[in-house]
Every structure is written in C-alpha cells, then in structure tokens.
Amino acid sequence: MGVPKNTVPPRRETRIPMEVGVHITGHPALPGTETTFTENVSPRGARVLSIRRWKPNDRLTISTLTGSFRSLARVAYCQMVPEAGFAVGLEFIEPNGSWVVSETPGT
C-alpha cells in the first residue's frame, strides 16, 4: 500500500498577477520596514517579494505605498526565489481601507 499524498485544497479565489508597491513590517528578528511589491493579489491576500526569510504563521503588517490599505497578515508560506530573496504568501487578517481588488458578491 502506498503512502497517502499530502494534498492542498484548491484556492477559494483567483490570484491576479499585479505589482503593487507595499511596506511590510513586523519581522521578529529583523526590525524595520521593508519596501517591496506584490507579485499577485486576491481579495484575501497577496504574494510579496521580501529580502527577509519569514516563518509560516508569522504575523506582519502590510500597507500600500499609495492609498489607504493596511492589514495585519499571516504568513502562509515563504519560498526562496533565486536572486530575488523570498516569495511570501500572505493572508489578510484585519484589512482596513481599500485593497486593489475586492470580493465579488456571493463569494
């Protein structure tokens, strides 16, 4: 008998490829604010590039460089990207302000 494969449930929403300038802050070992950008976005989260390695379930604050969006976020994953640092998947926990995409009614 084989070993059951670890399956990941499908996303509830589509990620949209979009670069948005953001600040991220709250790294537990490296204080300070990092200015970076997203690779893709959804109503509930984003994938950002970071020069810092983050751990799953770390908490950070993300805010847009322009506009009024700010949110506490949970790190879902952190993957090394050669010559670019780390790709960090974020789940928004306490979003405030207007994000670049919004949920469509009924989702």
Note down, in words, how this protein is organized.
There is one protein chain. The chain has a domain of 70 residues. Strands 2-3-4-7-6-5 form a 6-stranded antiparallel β-barrel. It contains no helices and 7 strands. With 107 residues, the chain is mainly beta.
What is the secondary structure topology, with strand pairs?
Layout: E1 16-17, E2 21-25, E3 33-42, E4 45-50, E5 59-64, E6 70-81, E7 85-92
Antiparallel strand pairs: 1-3, 2-3, 2-5, 3-4, 4-7, 5-6, 6-7
Mean pLDDT across all residues, rounded?
88
H/E element sequence: EEEEEEE
Spans of at least 5 consecutive residues whose pLDDT stays below 50 are none
SS-derived structural category? mainly beta
Q: How many helical elements? A: 0
Percentage of β-strand residues: over 45%
Alpha carbon gap, first and last residue? 39 Å
Radius of gyration: 15 Å
Shape: globular
Tell me briefly what this model is.
The protein has a domain at 16-85. The protein is mainly beta and 107 residues long.
Features:
107 residues, mainly beta, 6-stranded antiparallel β-barrel, 46% strand, globular
